[in-house]
Amino acid sequence: MQLEFWFEFGSTYSYPAAMRIEHLAGAHNLELLWKPFLLCPIFNNQGWNDSPFNTHHAKGKYMWRDMERICEAESIPLKKPSVFPRNGLLASRIACTYAAEKWIPDFIRSVYSANFAMDLDISDSKVIKSCIPSVAGCKDTVVDQASTPSAKVLTKHGQPLSD
């Protein structure tokens, strides 16, 4: 049986979920499928140019306090990002392009840690390269491959297009 985990690298609540889900899926003998998606196009379609957590102060304040409680309960480090939300497009392209690779779960968790535990800019390719495990091979090649037109289409549609 499979479990699809849909996540956005800039999403706060996806962070603690991403840090725990592989262990939980394994405990229940579920094959975990990592499914990145982008919130920015959804926000843009709604006419929003920012996160509702930024535009609605009370909602944002509650969310950050909720994140503190969740992360503390799960022993997950949390450092509120100095910029929120951050652009996770490159990380999403890598996760989509290399979805079948065994190193992807480690990469995903590393990106989340960079953003939400270390306050690093995950839109910076240097930060993303530092999140790519050495087993993936040449980090420049990984980033270059994830920036090709076909990788962009794959990220937009979430699956390979039929020939």
UniProtKB/TrEMBL annotation:
<feature type="domain" description="DSBA-like thioredoxin">
    <location>
        <begin position="2"/>
        <end position="134"/>
    </location>
</feature>
<dbReference type="GO" id="GO:0004364">
    <property type="term" value="F:glutathione transferase activity"/>
</dbReference>
<dbReference type="GO" id="GO:0006749">
    <property type="term" value="P:glutathione metabolic process"/>
</dbReference>
<dbReference type="InterPro" id="IPR051924">
    <property type="entry name" value="GST_Kappa/NadH"/>
</dbReference>
<dbReference type="GO" id="GO:0004602">
    <property type="term" value="F:glutathione peroxidase activity"/>
</dbReference>
<dbReference type="InterPro" id="IPR001853">
    <property type="entry name" value="DSBA-like_thioredoxin_dom"/>
</dbReference>
<dbReference type="Pfam" id="PF01323">
    <property type="entry name" value="DSBA"/>
</dbReference>
<dbReference type="InterPro" id="IPR036249">
    <property type="entry name" value="Thioredoxin-like_sf"/>
</dbReference>
<protein>
    <recommendedName>
        <fullName>DSBA-like thioredoxin domain-containing protein</fullName>
    </recommendedName>
</protein>
